[in-house]
# Entry
Amino acid sequence: MADKYQQFTTTPVGKFLTSKLGLPEPPVLRRYSPGQPPLEGPALLGAAPNGRLEKTLATQLGNAGIQVLRSASESSRYGALVFDATGITDPSELRELHAFFHPVIRNIGHSGRVVVLGTPPEQVSGRERIAQRALEGFTRTVGKELKRGATSQLIYVAAGAEEVAESTLRFLLSAKSAFVDGQVIRVGATGTTTASAPDSWEKPLDGKTALVTGASRGIGASIAEVLARDGAHVVALDIPAQGADLSAVANRTGGSALQLDITAADAPDRLAEYLTERHGGVDVVVHNAGITRDKTLAKLSEAQWDSVLTVNLAAQLAVNDKLLADDVLRDNGRIVGVSSIAGISGNVGQANYATSKAGVIGMVDDYAARMAERGATINAVAPGFIETQMTAAVPLMIREFGRRLSSLSQGGLPVDVAETVAWYANPASTAVNGNVVRVCGQGFLGA
# Structure
């Protein structure tokens, strides 16, 4: 559904009124299209003394086709500001953040990027742990202060994982992360610190098979399209009642349609058999299927509770266990759960839904170590307000509040969730394990 307020603010009258009245001015976000440059301007790279990432970052930025500057200029307009904070070992050294960013923060361009890289606090101790944890408050605040669609992120890179942060750096600096803001991502902190770069960064999933549940429309259809764009053969799964829409998605992506109720007792067996016989296994599993049955707890029936928990959580666990037990998930495989901001902050009338989506986060926590032992990963996305048929049915005023309550002052698009899933799916993201990333434009609700 079109955001008419955003469209109004781009008109001369709208620009005048929003400026005079202090109303939100949602920017037009730069989103990815094949062949576009990674950034609209150079990246300024800085580092605290004794940082361990600076040299590697310069190489990785260059590999991505990004011009790297090492000294600031008051007249420059930057596509990104990248700072290696791993050398900060005492809270007194946090002034290095101010010294680097203060002179140049106003010079970041439209849809620009701020990325700070640190060491996972849980892997160090004493004052260094305190200083590294402080980076979260800095990056989240910067995300709320930036304008014109710019975003701010923090990447904690474990010792030994310096060479495998490239897929994450590329994602966060690119237009693929348009609606990801104020997030903290850990690379190599849970399990492996190895990864293999794809033969092509444009087609990183070439030769891979990806399963997407709930793929007939909305976010699921967009995930299928983006994974197919990146080279995967997509098995689009949904219930038989969605058969026509499901076939359309499969035809559009050059994939396969599989009509199956994943809550059926035999669904895991049938799915494992299908993936093995038709494709010799699966490389990426995206648990997108989900339902809502909204009622306040006092009015919520047992059947409404059970149906949501079964589809949104129990079925995912059953499928995971079967695919892992039978080795249907291939080496360097991926499992991606779709959680929700409701699973982090809760939501009135959604006790069942919020419980199930918080359970998806628990699933990531529980499976991460086991997946790392297999050289595989499990992560989740937690969408905020995304423009879908579901949100289009929300009453007008609630919908408008949902759109504006973020640092980017607008709702996201299904493709924003899909791009985040594709980053997780990339074979170069093996060191990205156990993460839950919100795709919410740094919504003011949640953590």
